[in-house]
Sequence to fold (598 residues):
Amino acid sequence: MHRYRTQTCGELRDSHIGETVRLAGWCHRIRDHGGVLFIDLRDHYGLTQVVADPDSPAFRTAETLRAEWVVRIDGKVRRRPGGTENPDLPTGQVEIYIAEIEVLGPAAELPMPVFGEQEYPEEMRLRYRFLDLRRERLHANIMKRGQIIDSIRRRMKEGGFFEFQTPILTASSPEGARDFLVPSRLHPGKFYALPQAPQQFKQLIMIAGFDRYFQIAPCFRDEDARADRSPGEFYQLDIEMSFVTQDDVFEAVEPVLRGVFEEFGDGKPVTPKFPRIPYGDSVTRYGTDKPDLRNPIVMQNVTDVFRGSDFKVFANQIASDPKVEVWAIPAPKGGNRAFCDRMNEWAKGEGLPGLGYIFWREGEESGAGPIARNLGAERTERIRAQLRLGVGDAVFFAGGRTETFVHLAGFARTKIGNELGLIDKERFELCWIVDFPMYGWDPEEKKIEFSHNPFSMPNMSPEEFLALDPTDHDKILDIKALQYDIVCNGVELSSGAIRNHRPEVMRKAFAIAGYDESVLEAKFGGMLRALQYGAPPHGGIAPGIDRIVMLLCGEENLREVTLFPMNQRAEDLLMGAPSEVTAKQLRELHIRLNPLQK
Fold:
């Protein structure tokens, strides 16, 4: 017989009745029923009920056991007594009558129990992450993560992609988030950086003649934590392809993502063909470039209805500023004053002066509320007809310069959808966001800046781009890039682009954003040199593994699908990182500390 086990705790069935077996695992739960001890023994594979009564030679040892002790038990498999079966367990028809117990690893008093799914403070969960990971839900999430990654890897290889690994120690990049820097012992005063993404390397792989690349790539960014962003590090499905258009990337990636969501989505419907939504349309319809398409609410521009109206709050703004707009946010089935007033108060709490509304109820087909009275029946009817609303419905309004209210309008759309139960939580709605602006305006620095990936190709011919006047800011800000995102249920999974593979176009693109050519040579010299020696048109994308797993596990925080996450302050409470280092280590790295004075 094996030293520790002949079967796992998830393996025994009716066919094993009568056999003498050996199991090993953790004491998940211990129950004393009138002197008979029932122990749920747990390992990675499942649970088995083991039993000891006063006649068992192991009874005295069994009485000493406590939760999470690791034990080996020998005993005979028998059928559970009638009425005590557990249909929720694969092993629920049988139990083991214990003949012998060996304590392999006693446990101290637990800071948090493993049995059950109670909520505990983040600090406790992360400090004792090894205990947290024993809990059923979290353990299952981590296993599902591995299965999802296996499926993605298989699908990519079936699609003709080859897996490569890129360096972890590389050069610092001036774009994107802050780098994690690694001092060089051999080159005093110089630093490596951990890669924010394998962006340049995967492009170099294409330039080197490898046609289709992918990697489950670790990425490192020194940025603040959010529910959908882990501080420090994360993983992405990094993809690059040669001799492709934007459509080719979509056709290669979409079946992989759709297949994974269908395979692991517990039967929830998945978008059959991902719609393509221009960035500008996404912002004006949904108030965001990460729209949750499960929400049926689509915002509309109703500026002309308010122009010259008696509702002076908006009419005066429209008359004095040509950039002022009024957007309508329909609220099907929200046509009662209590709900409308509640939304108005919510908006005030979010920083808006309010959220004006009109609602329709029986006997008041012309609409109710202060805005309706000021607009008049004709203009109110135009709004109702444009939005296709009726009795029992409402509409809310946001006005001003769009940059001042667009995000809150998007939040309001989401809030209304949730409050009215309009969002179908039992489906996965994916889409492409396309036609991102190449550049944006930095109002603080008063200069043009990249709005997205600086390595993207502008959506115009190289000749047209090279002929542009860099001082013509209006024309520059109108340039669209061959950039795209994938969004699922309001979560951005990925950004991608067709790359800028022409060195003269790249030089001008960076010059427009204010980068001197010497900076470009210093930071991206390797890339520029490579582009000068025959670069194929190429493009790619990098869906976030952690976010895909989070959605498929039904979680709202990446912490629930990551083995050893950091806390919100980018601290590893389990291992004690970041930590101080010795004076000897600092001397070897030629580093002298200059801490901030308190």
